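request received
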Amino acid sequence: MPENDPCGKALASPKGELDPETVELLWQLFVKICDRWGNVPDSGTMKTRFLRFLSNRIKMNPAYLDHYRKAVKEIERLKQDTQIPDAYEHLFTNPEANNPPIQSSLQIARQLVSNEFISLQLSLGGFKEFTGAINYPGYIAGWNGDGPPPYRIPSQP
Amino acid sequence: MKTDIVIVGSGVAAAALTWKILRGDPTASILVLEAGKKMKMRDFAIFQDYLVTGKEPYRAYRDLPYQERDQEGENRNIGGTVVPLDKSRLTMYGGSTVHWGGWSFRLKEEDFHLHTNTGRGIDWPFDYGELEPYYCEAEHYIGVSGDSSDKTTPRTQDYPFRAFPFTMEDELSIRALEKLGYRYSHLPIARQGVSKTISSHAPCQTTGKCKYCPFGARYVAANSLDDLSSLEAHPNFSIRTEIIVQEILMSAKDRASGLRCLNRATGQEEMIEAETIIVASGALESPKLLQRSKGPLWNDGIGNDRALVGRNLVTHPYFFFEATLPENPSAMQPEMGFPTLVSRHFDSADEQAAGKFILVNPSENPNYEGRNSDLARLMQAGLTTGQIKQAVRGRVTVQWQGMLEVFSDPRNQIASCNRINRLGLHETVVNYTKDTGFDDRLVQIGKHVSKIFRAMGGDDGCLIQVSWRADHAACTTRMSKEPHQGVVTPDLKVHGVDNLYVCSNASFASFGAVNPTLTLTALSLRLGAHLLKGRGRAEAACFAAPGDLALATLT
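response:
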């Protein structure tokens, strides 16, 4: 999908499609993840793959249209709540949001949206900052050809 | 419906056998019957779903766990040891290769002489040298990356692809093994490498999420059968799914005439006539089909006049030992989806009588802050970057995993049950009780593993789990020269029947301490050569792989 077409038909399913505003708010959530953990130097380079991910999730399971809409609404609610100093920090750290079963909008926003974005972000390269590794489960590092292998090897082989 | 060769099952045995026959006889009439459904392979949306949920996309095609007091289940376990069937196999197009890990070991020379060497079980009716050319062919067929200089087993051909180098996470283990004088080697793994030919299968991209490969780089029989169907001209080859074989029909005591099947999609019964019938349905379904095929010619099921069908069940107990390392200064982190280091030090003739075993440094090593903690979970739990960096360099747990050889006992057996499971199969009754010496053997193994953990700088560690899962179930229609010892001949033909074969782990005489798939692939290619010979076609060893395309095909 072209990067300048973030809300194209690929973000649609027979049950509907995501409006551009929702897509943009989801992207903001992804950028906030990158900002909070500081593990991606330039999150903008991941936008095309992020949008493809949204498209794939909806294609696999149209219920994600609802999950994404609910998550965005929930984040907006948290932003409006004067008792919560930082909506995103609340979403990322509130332990109740991470508890099963998934029932509330907050749990949907955390477990089915934010947590999945974290897994995606790590698999797109976010892992490197934490360990210095060059490969990670989910990361497409390349093949075992004639050059150096696409993962760390012993210092004294 | 009429066909020349019918194969029951669509796993690696069916795929390799079909490939071999069609290489020698492209117009052969072959029909493959699969009880399960077909699932989309090599799909990036499915891969991403697996990536973020951790749920394997084919889990609907597994058996359910055994019934418990307040939980519906499938199959019955009536022995002293629980052998779980759930997660151990898949009833679907491509069979259990859809979820297998790809570990591709050869048996060792002494494995073929188990009874002679130890008095346990039976010998194979031929030796390693007979199977060696087919091992070479099998390694090319399923695309194994391995170390051709490894002397663990003799070889006459190199692996098709170079071994994956050891990982940084292997380093501690290597130092420990060397300190203790334990031999180790690269783990041969069915992952496509960079091919010299044009291939429909991309080389392994080391995604680390190998249980569903979006590139088809891990061998899966479904992809190979698709290649045979779509890329090459085989006018008389076809595959049908959702066809459940109920019974093998006989025209005489020594001659099978066809199959009675249930078409699950239509609910209709179908008869399929065939000149040659090959049962390739794994070590559980293959004997069950023979047992169910009762009639005036074979009162207790085909090939079962000596009540051997379904007996001598063995599987590999898979063990997990775990220890704690006080720190992880180099920030080791799992980078791969498969292990690269194995020790077959104890998979030796010296250990054979007590039960050989292998040790594997699992690709999940290490785990941060205890079991099941990886970077994603640490972030998802809300830890800060500083806390995560501290966690990955702090205390970690590491494991050694492995498999132990167990021996055939005729009291250990499987049988068919009248109840039908949700996938349409007759449920299975498993009656297995571990050997009385097993627990002592595990204690001995634990002592070796503790030494390794200590040499790695960890504590003694402990056994955390033994799984008797039936992934490697075998020997239930074992091969033998004489019918009083086994169910099939050295050519995998059912004793006493001229045109019925069992091509499965079920036909292994025994199978040492290593994964069975490469050996099954070699046996399947050998059976293909045998059938070609019977059809007056010369056998030619082929060191290509499914999906390798001749330039002529593309132009």
